[in-house]
Amino acid sequence: xxxxxxxxxxxxxxxxxxxxxxxxxxxxxxxxxxxxxxxxxxxxxxxxxxxxxxxxxxxxxxxxxxxxxxxxxxxxxxxxxxxxxxxxxxxxxxxxxxxxxxxxxxxxxxxxxxxxxxxxxxxxxxxxxxxxxxxxxxxxxxxxxxxxxxxxxxxxxxxxxxxxxxxxxxxxxxxxxxxxxxxxxxxxxxxxxxxxxxxxxxxxxxxxxxxxxxxxxxxxxxxxxxxxxxxxxxxxxxxxxxxxxxxxxxxxxxxxxxxxxxxxxxxxxxxxxxxxxxxxxxxxxxxxxxxxxxxxxxxxxxxxxxxxxxxxxxxxxxxxxxxxxxxxxxxxxxxxxxxxxxxxxxxxxxxxxxxxxxxxxxxxxxxxxxxxxxxxxxxxxxxxxxxxxxxxxxxxxxxxxxxxxxxxxxxxxxxxxxxxxxxxxxxxxxxxxxxxxxxxxxxxxxxxxxxxxxxxxxxxxxxxxxxxxxxxxxxxxxxxxxxxxxxxxxxxxxx
Length: 495
What we know:
Layout: H1 2-16, H2 20-37, H3 62-70, E1 74-81, H4 96-105, E2 115-125, E3 129-133, H5 134-137, E4 142-146, E5 154-156, E6 158-163, E7 168-172, E8 195-200, E9 208-219, E10 229-232, E11 244-247, E12 252-259, E13 267-271, H6 272-285, E14 291-292, E15 295-298, H7 302-307, E16 316-321, H8 326-330, E17 337-341, E18 344-345, H9 349-357, E19 364-371, E20 374-381, E21 383-384, H10 386-393, E22 403-404, E23 411-414, H11 418-423, E24 435-439, H12 444-448, E25 455-459, E26 462-463, H13 467-473, E27 481-486, E28 489-494
Antiparallel strand pairs: 1-2, 1-4, 2-3, 3-7, 4-5, 6-7, 8-9, 8-11, 9-10, 10-13, 11-12, 12-13, 14-21, 15-16, 16-17, 17-18, 17-19, 19-20, 22-23, 23-24, 25-26, 25-27, 27-28
């Protein structure tokens, strides 16, 4: 006991005797580490700890430490969507029962309850920026986030950007304090067999952690995702979607997104390298402008190689060139074998799909093809995928000019017009009425059930004919009653 105390005393003396120069160096090192860990997600955060060697034993408290550092960055997400009454085709006959019922009893009450869902996410910036799956928040009117801080507070989140093709979304909450951040790692150098842990909100059991290994890399699941998945046997259940998959050093290497319902222990995550590549456009523009080439492709088979005298079986065989597309303008033709795009080798049609999708619209790239046995290099200017461009143009309210409701009620109205009636398939009105053209997600209007395409008949029992009438008759600090025509039904909504 005396020897032990003596040793401890010597250790304390040694620590006290550290020179000021070493202390300064230690402070500089700590400051540098703090700077690196506080950099934004747009800079790839590189894991700095050395990898464990095969001969190194795993620390006994490995997963305890992972839970300690990761759980504070994980959030539970709950969403609700107000029921939408489908708009009936005015050309279809009405059920006479409803006419009889409403003649004597008034409009039928809306019985459906708001649809609710649960999911997960993780904080990537101390100001409340969160990564989750797009399918977690898709079409939600209200998005609420709960932190892992024992306070039980729910924070309403806004959607910053979303990308259905990769199933990634960015949402943001406002919290009057700095939040803990999950560091983003690298997924390109992952190996099968590495330990991982999945965090999330499975079946509503908040802040749950499961462990397992990377069981496969590069899984393509029936083209449901733009990039191949990571496969893990760490338990992933409904509610885990959007949560982080972390490696043994606490770095996020994937976003939990899907399971194979036919089996146990087969879950999938989006590799974090692909997620990091789209975060900047998601935050700046709210979406990803994905590249478009304009060709239909087929893999090279023994029959096609023999029939078309192809010198190799690797590449993407062009079977159709879309008229007036970037490919057509660049001179690509049917039966061209694409073997390289933008300096990347193309071995399969999927390789070309991913390479083009990862290229920004408007960027010039070189395409190497084999045509009639000879290699040719063509220059192509990549366009924007027409489907995504159309979706962006079709965003509610984006193509119509209207009036924004006051008092932060969260909706816009426009005067009734033939164009609106045609686009939204509205009933023909002899007396024009204002039309709802936009409802903000999570707003009082959304929570009340107001929908795009609703025709407003009166506000607080005062008939309205123009959009400006709606604004004039809305009252502050009170529930506003709106009588609206939805399809061929009249309903009451209170905002």
